[in-house]
Design a protein that fits this description.
Layout lengths: L3 E3 L2 E3 L2 E3 L4 E2 L2 E2 L4 E3 L2 E4 L3 E4 L7 H9 L9 E3 L5 H4 L2 H7 L4 E4 L1 H10 L7 E3 L5 E3 L4 E6 L9 E5 L4 E3 L20 H16 L3 H11 L6 E3 L10 H12 L4 E9 L4 H15 L3 E6 L5 H9 L1 E8 L1 E2 L2 E2 L1 H13 L5 E8 L5 H12 L2 E2 L4 E4 L4 H24 L11
Parallel strand pairs: 8-9, 9-10, 10-11, 15-16, 17-18, 17-19, 19-22, 22-23, 22-24
Antiparallel strand pairs: 1-2, 2-7, 3-6, 4-5, 7-8, 12-13, 13-14, 14-15, 20-21
Helix pairs in contact: 1-3, 5-7, 5-9, 6-7, 8-12, 10-11
Bound molecules: MU-OXO-diiron (FEO).
The site of MU-OXO-diiron has 8 residues, from α2.
Length: 407
Amino acid sequence: MNTTLCENIDWVGYVDWNVRDFHSYDTEHGATYNAYLIRDEKIALIDAVKAPYGENLLRNVSALCDPAKVDYVVCNHAEPDHSGAMPDVLRAMPNAALVCDKKCAEALAEHYDAAHWKRRIVSTGDAVSLGKRSLQFVETPMVHWPESMFTYVPEEKLLFSMDAFGQHLATSERFDDETALCTVMEEAKAYYANIIMPFGKSVRACLERIAGLEVEMIAPSHGVIWRSHPAKILAAYRNWMEHRPRPKVLVIYDSMWESTGAMAEALRDGAAVAGVQAKLISIRRSNLTRIATDVLDAAAIAFGSATLNHGMMPMAAATLSYLEGLRPRGKAALAFGSYGWGRGGAEGVDKQLRAIGWDILREPIVSKYRPTPAILDECRQAGRTLAEKARVLAAGRAAAAQVCLDP
Ligand code: FEO
């Protein structure tokens, strides 16, 4: 495995092949916790790893230098997947000063027994010389915690970007040009949708802050390093940040006895006839992570639920609650669903779609028990309406960049 970014700058993190649940993020392809070692006249470690993998990090560092000779340990982000091993790391590096911004120092003190740690507090514009190279710091608050920070090495045009531009993707390769780019982009999209999406304004400020930097390589704290395609991930972030939709309709549903399922099929068929990408998603055959990823760049969404106990099906309610928290913007939407002796499923969806803030195109489409041919026709027509709206929305917001191109 090639772990060298450039001369004397190496990846020393951990590949977590088996993690499948990252605080409810479905990490079906595993994850990595990236840390980097810069050896110059001074030695700096950039970030740590999750608590159980501190020994792995220290083993990687020891293969390159004596940990006692490390001068600085930079903490770009205090979340425990990057700082969990910090107590062990600093114990093994007794001569190192922890370098972080003020909010990070506060967060670390609230997580760990950090009173005795040597600290160097930095803020945007500060720099630390390592000899031939230097570390420059750019605070990036709320991307996606208050203390988030980038570290830039101008001599190498290299940006250590903590979570931003990352992907939950375990691979034996460390670079974007060694891995299928379509997979990397899809996982970067999933990461943005599920972790970064609520913080679009902060992402905008962050991109403006780094616009003046010459960046040839982006080394995030998860996934592969952007060595050959940094412009592609930066362009994708601009599209996602602005919620630019593609001409794409999603029909997301949970059914009890397949009446809502039949309505969902008819809605999707109607949308597909109108010539846009039209996708059917059964909530119980997918997961929150993948649904949010699909929602990110969809222009229009039909969301359906059967009625259970005068309300939505539990997984439909959970999905909408999750989406409300992620705050995807600018979608056209409608609710649908079947009921029996009591109403509530489609009506509950409609209420929640309005709470998310989407443009609701019509009253809910409902069916008592099995949908009749007339109701299925109504669904197909509604699908066509969604597709037309999706085309208008996508055209009106400037065509989204094609983010899944062959390298
Ligand atoms: Fe990868 Fe926000 O921690």
